[in-house]
Amino acid sequence: MSFDIVLVGVGGQGVLTIGELLFHAAFDADMPASLTPTKGMAQRGGFVKVELRLGREGAGPRIGERAADLVVGMERSEAIKGIPYAKQDGTFVLFDHVWEPTGVMLGTDAYPALDDVTDAIREATSNVVILNPADVPCVDGRAVPANVYVLGAILGQSALGERLDPEIVERILSDRWPKAADSNCVAFRAGLASGELALGEFLRTSPDGELRGGEQ
Amino acid sequence: MKRIVSGNQAIALGALRAGVKLVSGYPGTPSTGCVTHLLTMELPDRHVEWSTNEKVAFEIAAGAAWAGHRAMCTMKMSGVNVAYDALISIAYSGTNGGLVVYVADDPGVSAGMAEQDSRGFALMSYLPMLEPASPAEAYELAGTAFELSEAVGSPILIRLTTSIALSHAGVEIEQPVPPREIKPILEKDITRYTKAGSAICRQQHQSLIDRLEQASEWVHQRGLNRLELAGEPGGLGVIAAGAVNAYLPEAIALAEGMRLDDVSTLRLKTTIPFPWEETNQLLGHCGTILVLEELEPHVERAAHVAARQLGFDGPIVGKMDGTLSPIGELGVAEIVKGLASATGSSPTRESQHAILGHASGDGTSRGAEVLSAPRPITVCAGCPHRGTYLAIEAAIERAGYSKDNVMVTGDIGCTILGMNPPFDLLWNEVSMGSSVSLAQGYVHAGIDTPVIATIGDSTFFHGGIAGLINAIQHRVPLTLVVMDNGWTAMTGMQVNPGTDAAFQERGRRIDLEQVVRGLGPDSVAVVDPYDLEGATDAIAKSLGTAGGVHVVLAQRECAIQAARRGIRYGTTTVDPETCILCKKCLRVTGCPALSMASPPEELGESPEDDSPGRQHIEIDASLCNGCGVCVSFCPTSALKRAPKEASE
């Protein structure tokens, strides 16, 4: 069974790392896979997109619009650029990190409100998961890597967890960064379990506390 | 062994498998990863280098191939423009050892500069070109290219597009093969290796045509272009070139219900030589032809010629009839659209999604994008170019002008980022080195404000130096600011002639300052971009001097490369009590290390942690290298810089 994933975010958030870890897990499991990063000219701080296609032998690297089984937005504003890829019956995971561009800080450009972004996402797809950056746990007073938390969350909260064994992903994670294995493990498992808190999250991030359709 | 490789790495490994002796190139996204990968490997008996420019790189490879070895040269599509003078000439001469040019095209322009279809170059110079559709094919066809090159005695182009060059996949990789042990060929034959006279040139033209003819036969024998006729005569025939082939099965599956049971296909790995025989068979069997190719309709034009010769009078659907666009990548959605148009059927519900989502730019899928905040690319925290832009701007003002009426030409590379906010300083970006020559044209045109050209170090060595020589020879009054950060930075930090000796692979460093002084401009000033006053003074002095060519060398190593070696120049801090949040530092420098400290509740901390509502500028210590450029713009001295000695 094929599974197509689009990840979008800002360079420096570890978007590509999420893609690489999933890609290596697929490779280890002998699953055909293709990983394609797209980043602009910026060394850091620019828009980044990663396309990961699993289970398709010999398929081209690009994922078409409305064709991704899973879209992951790592930053509120850039997540909007992932919406065109969302499949109606796929899953959209929004990690609601806010990374304001300079123009927003200077007050010359507008930054989108969370409600407007989630409304736009819900128009494209019915399964929406919103992750609050405040729920990324701390170890010894320091926040664990947010991208590893998101990695756990997408395995825990989308059909991806049925295609790729989270245990394999966790092993690859600790093999790659043995020194950070403990904090990465905390991040990964917290993400994996994040679904259990999903309803609470939603109520917290929705200012009026009103539950809208499509969340169940 | 199956390994994870990118398309770029697959080309490199395929060349090693083919026993390549020499690989040269000039960095250019998306092709850079090929030579970069080779430079990470221990390769005894082989030579790998970043050359000064693509023409130099290609000529080096050609020399090695003329001497009988296998050689490869790599570049991005714009690089072919530079190399082409040599490329077309050497095409007429042919080659002895296998000579392969790897070029990466960028349909959709996600990586670079131009939607330029390099197949046009191959067509003009009768050079066979292989077009792999995946990293696995790239690995295989890299080897095929060397075989074909030696079989017919012609240089061969191998072309990837961005998505394939940058995508990673598991590919079965075999052991590399050492370069052949031969005595280099020294063949003296002016009829082949020179262009001395009409008779020689006409003979070479004939040989060129003959070689493509032989290549056509070789490609046909090898079955590189695969024809599959299906169903009863009169059905649909699809010709798909290169990268498009990877999406064809997916698109046909999506188009189920479009009466596609009997679709015949011709899958091309070469547009040049054109597969006339297979095309004729397809035309003979089918009633309608759909041509799928990215960028220009080269295959489609040839299909029209074949149709005319055969008397085929069915429709040929593609770009020339307006169904598909020559702009952008060609993926599943476009193929489905083409299939629907060619079969005259309405797309199925599922396939309609694909088409609607993509081609029409309708409100539902792309509409929300207006919500996202603009994120213009700027230079990195601590980038020396920031100081140079600000110094140029200050010097223009000091000389009594405004940046809105002083021409500052730009050039290729990181230095062009001065076109973006907050600098908005540069007016143009054309080709490697063009800043210096364009500036001279503006001067000759008689504009009455000073003209400034800006260029980076690698771009100066690559193509700018000839323009400077011209300016000095012809006494064209202008100021050239060379922004020398010691690296070819934008493509991911490659070594160039001016890079510090410690990082030269086997080469030595060329002193850019000595090169410039040697040319004899009217003045040369060397400044540190972190010293805003000094840099501004030097540039303002040039602008205030009537006549003469003035060169200002702004020298400071790329902040990214310095940071990788742990270099910091000091510590810049903000005093939250004194910061009045005027944001001038942010507005003037746009430095990514500067931000506004978020209100406590957004961080999820309890409000007692900080006094609520008291915002101030914050510095990301992990990004800031203490360059101190922001400090001079702070009106309340809240920003302070402690030099390196005092820090840690």
H/E topology pattern of chain A: EHEEEHEHHEEEHHHHH
Outline the low-pLDDT stretches of chain A.
199-216
SS field, number of helical segments of chain B: 22
Helix fraction bin of chain A: 25-40%
Q: Enumerate the strands of the largest sheet of chain B in spatial order, edge to edge or round the barrel.
A: 3-2-4-5-7-6
CATH architectural arrangement of the largest domain in chain B: 3-Layer(aba) Sandwich
**β-strand number of chain A:** 8
- Largest sheet, strands/sense/barrel of chain B: 6 strands, parallel
Helical content band of chain B: 25-40%
| Overall mean pLDDT of chain A | 89
CATH topology of the largest domain in chain B: Rossmann fold
Largest sheet of chain A: 6 strands, mixed
CATH class of the largest domain in chain B: Alpha Beta
- Kindly provide the radius of gyration of chain A, computed on alpha-carbon positions and rounded to a whole number of angstroms: 16 Å
Q: What percent strand of chain A?
A: 15-25%
How does this model look, in words?
The complex is a heterodimer of chains A (216) and B (648). With 216 residues, chain A is of the alpha/beta class. Chain A has one domain (3-203): Pyruvate-ferredoxin oxidoreductase, PFOR, domain III (Pyruvate-ferredoxin Oxidoreductase, domain 3, 3-Layer(aba) Sandwich), CATH 3.40.920.10. Chain A has helices at 15-28, 76-79, 102-105, 114-124, 146-157, 160-163, 166-176, 181-192, 198-205, and strands at residues 3-10, 33-39, 47-54, 68-73, 86-95, 127-131, 138-139, 142-143. The longest helix of chain A is centred in the first third of the chain and has 14 residues, at 15-28. Chain A is globular. Chain B has 4 domains: 2-221, Rossmann fold (3-Layer(aba) Sandwich); 226-362, 3-Layer(aba) Sandwich (Rossmann fold); 384-563, Thiamin diphosphate (ThDP)-binding fold, Pyr/PP domains (Rossmann fold); 568-646, Alpha-Beta Plaits, CATH 3.30.70. By secondary structure, chain B is an alpha/beta fold. Chains A and B meet through helix 1, strand 2, helix 3 and helix 4 of A and helix 7, strand 8, helix 14 and helix 15 of B.
